[in-house]
UniProtKB/TrEMBL annotation:
Signal peptide: none
MF terms (GO), sorted A to Z: rRNA (uridine-N3-)-methyltransferase activity
Protein source organism: Prunus persica
InterPro entries on file: BMT5-like
Listed GO CC annotations: cytoplasm
Limits of the 25S rRNA (uridine-N(3))-methyltransferase BMT5-like domain: 4-66
Name listed for the protein in its UniProt record: 25S rRNA (uridine-N(3))-methyltransferase BMT5-like domain-containing protein
GO biological process: rRNA base methylation
Length: 80
């Protein structure tokens, strides 16, 4: 499952908590970590939790128009 550009990643974090783990799941953001930190107060704690639960977190990625490498990586992880 791929979640694209979900702001502070709170939705992805809630989903990971509900599922108990998040293997084969990808969360992306067009913004960099620095930009996310200044825009969303709780974002870094959400990203840390996602990584602990097995999410692949990709920052500074245009997931709606991915490059070939990004598309291949996301597809492989999401099992599509």
């Amino acid at each position: 499952m791929v979640q694209v550009g979900k702001g502070d990643s709170s939705f992805s974090t809630c989903l990971a908590r509900a599922l108990g783990s998040a293997h084969n799941m990808v969360a992306t953001s067009l913004k960099s970590q620095g930009s996310l930190r200044t825009t969303y107060r709780n974002c870094l704690s959400h990203l840390s939790e996602l990584k602990r639960r097995g999410y692949l977190v990709l920052l500074s990625v245009e997931a709606t128009l991915p490059s070939y490498e990004e598309e291949t990586l996301i597809s492989a992880i999401a099992g599509t």
